[in-house]
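User: My advisor asked me to double-check a structure prediction for Family with sequence similarity 20 member C, like before group meeting. I don't want to rely on an old file, so could you generate it fresh from this sequence?
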Amino acid sequence: MESALSKLEALFDHPLYNMLSPPIPEEDWLLRVKPKVKASEKSSQMWVSASQDGYEDIQWNSSSNSHPPWLRFHLGISRWQLYPHRDPNMEALTQQLATSRIVSTVQKSGGTQLKLVMSFPNYGQAMFKPMKQERDDETNYNLYYFSDFERHNAEIAAFHLDSYSEHMGNVCFYGQCSYYCSTEHAVCGSPRDLESSLAVMLPDLSLATRRSWRSPWRRSYSRSKLAKWETESDYCSTVKKTPPYNKGTRLVDFIDLVILDFLMGNMDRHHYETFEKFGNNTFLLHLDNGRAFGRHSKDEPSILVPLEQCCRIRLSTWLRLRLLSLPQYRLSDVMRASLSHDPLHSVAPLLSEPHLAALDRRLQTVLETVSRCQKQQSKDGGGNEVIFDDTAHLKDMVTSAG
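Assistant: Sure, here is a fresh prediction for Family with sequence similarity 20 member C, like from the sequence you gave:
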């Protein structure tokens, strides 16, 4: 673990993770604090009185030092990222999620499995997903991909890259949802303690509306029907002509998401979201990673089809993936070190060693896929269209990445 921690520190000290970014203009911040609020502008939308039971007295002002971690997170969202790589606020935020007293809990409607929204004394909220399977339990080979339980540790591991028990003597409960909410699929403590993942909530939709985008490579979610991308080898050429994938960085942004899902083994990416304020020129929000890390002994090549069909990847992503394939920055080692910072690590490692080893194997598959694309393009006499040069000065870093 000491060696892995030093690799993690070395990785984040590398130039590829310390690229200088231009100052963010005012209009590219998702939310801003009003310097002053006139009495005539006050309304029922203001923060509720501190006299409410269980909530703290509010002492916030325009200084970020006065804000709780969840509010600093919300105010740090920009057009280009949800949070920076080395955001010092993340440690405080995860600590709050792990230790803060819970004021109230309500079930979140919708979805296939039980989820709760928990509120904290500082007015923060988080999404709760309970533990349903042991960490070492692999998805059954005979189980269809959208029939599996979601995994609380997959949400946590996905953030860092985020079994069925007897009910006797344990406190159990269940809620209302599409599939796994019944006495047969109850959530049970051991006997009263229950592991879970907690994901901090994004800004309320009344403050920052989001748009949901259907994935062009969405699965059919049918046992008998194939999606178009599964039958048309040239499917990507159609996608490239379709807004918003026909200009800007949306296609390579989506390929980044595809690579993340392949590394995690997540087949359940049917939609993604963006903040409407920023239009089409912004980063992608990939919410809900509960069906990731289900199998370590088998890779799912269909997840990588968009990369294979489009043969397009951004330069910065390609360089970082090559960096993570080197022994001194090995992905499994830095992931192990990163997960060791999570509060649940004291109970048991968030990912088993076979899952960590699978990350290295899958990373090599991604690099080999890009290499095949380059060879095929060279054979066809085309230019270097596989690598999308997203940052001109990264060209000088190719050598340092391997």
